[in-house]
# Entry
Amino acid sequence: MGKEITILAVDDSEINLDILVGILKKYDVIPALSGKEALEILQEEKIDLILLDIVMPEMDGFEVCRRIKADESTWEIPVIFITVKSSEQDIQQCFELGVVDYVVKPFNAIELLARVQTHLKLRSYQVRLEETIKEQAQLEFIKDISQFKQGLLQLMSLTDSMIKELNKEDAMDRKEISAACLQMQKTLNHLTDGL
# Structure
């Protein structure tokens, strides 16, 4: 049986990637040696979390993160920066880009694993909450459709009754027609309240 959670680890150092793969051995870790490679992997694989170095040649982690957050198919994936950069300005820029956490190298393996687990749990809760909200909206929609259908059936019944009565020799008087029309209007108003 395969591992259920996939983490994309992006670093231009193979040694750092090997260390991350070793620490995160209970997960399926896909290593990427460049930002370009990471972006290609994101188009092909379902990724649950991204560990991203900032200092890389060609395309730094900031640019990779900008592209991840600008893409509709990847913007919700949590990103944790793992980097030697630790100035206040760097940290601020990271969080402005939408990363969920920031770990400074050299990092403590236990701390890194704890942060990864925390953000995976948070993402899992977020996904479940979104699914619950979607289910509630669907149930509400079904309830609304059912009420709408009931109102239409009531209108059809009233219309049928009026037509039958009008076709009789001793047809309804104005008072009865007016009462039926008022009932129809009330039903139509109720049906269109939420529109």
Summary: The first helix runs from residue 14 to 23. The first strand starts at residue 6 and ends at 10. The chain has a mean pLDDT of 84.
